[in-house]
Amino acid sequence: MMVVGILRFLAVIAFVLIDAATLPAKAEPVAASDVDVIDGGTIRTRGKTVTLLGYDTPRRGPRALCRTETTVRAMATVKLRELVAVGNLSLTIVPCPCGQLSRGTIFCNRGRACGVLRRGGENVGDMLIREKLAREFICGETRCPPRKIARWCE
Question: Domain for residue 36, yes or no?
Answer without folding.
Answer: yes
